[in-house]
Amino acid sequence: MLFSNCSSFRFFCSHCPSSMLHSLPKHIIKRRMLSLSSANMEAESASVLVLCGKSNVENEFALSLKSNNVLRFLDSNPVSICLHSEIRNLHCDSEGFQVDHYMDVLSTSQFGRFLMYSPRLGSTHDVVSHNFGELPIGAVCVADVQTKGRGRSKNVWESPKGCLLFSFTIQMEDGRVVPLVQYVVSLAVTEAVKDICQKKGIQHLDVKIKWPNDLYLDGLKVGGILCTSTYKSNKFNVSAGIGLNVSNEKPTTCLNATLQKLTPVAHELQREDIMAAFFNKFEDLYTVFMGQGFQSLEPLYYKTWLHSGQRVIVQDKNDNQDQVVENVVTIQGLTPSGYLLAISEDGQTCELHPDGNSLDFFKGLIRRKLA
């Protein structure tokens, strides 16, 4: 998750059938042998990226991607590419992301169907953003641990085991709505958690959205969203990253820790279920968003965020523009451009912008008066 106080958003088998070894490249076989030593397991697992798909179409694409060797990585450590079909029958780390379970729960037609998984990776966001043109839209990269994750404004993204860490690709043509897609992503996360709790018949975890891109539970931060975009060939290539504390209680708290306090029966949410539920929800919400605009999602979004009726202090320049004065305004919602809509004590409507210097968006807000 995004650790706001910092500044700058065992996968290998211990036993492999000989027939399976013959089907793997020599450098993969060597890594498998080294993994027999527990001391080497963590280091070796850092350099593997597993490709797979929901259907034969995505699996054929995975084979092509591996064969053509076109993926680029910013991490200085070499990355070995392998197919999930090559390791499906191996005895893998039970704590690692369970690809088969995820695919079984996934029910989308586009998003999340092509998956890249690594036990240990520099940054899932870097993988999708620097390989955007080589990947299908909706492709996702997930890791058990990140070593170089980042959040908003280059803040450090804490990525311990137990945290759900994934990034995926979106492509859009209308630049006016690109800033709003992070709100659709945030809403899909909260709806996914709600949906899983309902299906399991367990206590609802009331995950809330802190504008613009943080997720909170019981007053503590449990996740964050990072969306970046580039413009190419008349389209906006958006890379969306999500970090959500599922089983890791540090650095703040996590979903399962809260769940244990709410119910006497032992229940645990799984990362695979949450990510599949996220894409199932996101695909539906994104379809509504692109067809009807974000306004159609606003009622649900406002039920989920923390800010309706919130009073905040904003900064204004005095008439001589030589002194900053502070005033209190009340948040009403979002403007069409995705900033905060507020009303001042004298009844003036305004749009709130962050000053760009604070880690907390609600410190140093600047207002722009609306006609």
Automatic annotation (TrEMBL):
Keywords: Ligase. GO terms for cellular component: cytoplasm. Residues 100-290 form the BPL/LPL catalytic domain. One of its GO terms (molecular function) is biotin--[biotin carboxyl-carrier protein] ligase activity. It holds the Pfam family BPL_C. It comes from the Eukaryota. SUPFAM superfamilies: Class II aaRS and biotin synthetases (SSF55681). InterPro entries: aa-tRNA-synth_II/BPL/LPL (IPR045864), Biotin_CoA_COase_ligase (IPR004408), BPL_C (IPR003142), BPL_LPL_catalytic (IPR004143). Belongs to the biotin--protein ligase family. This is Biotin--protein ligase 2-like isoform X1.
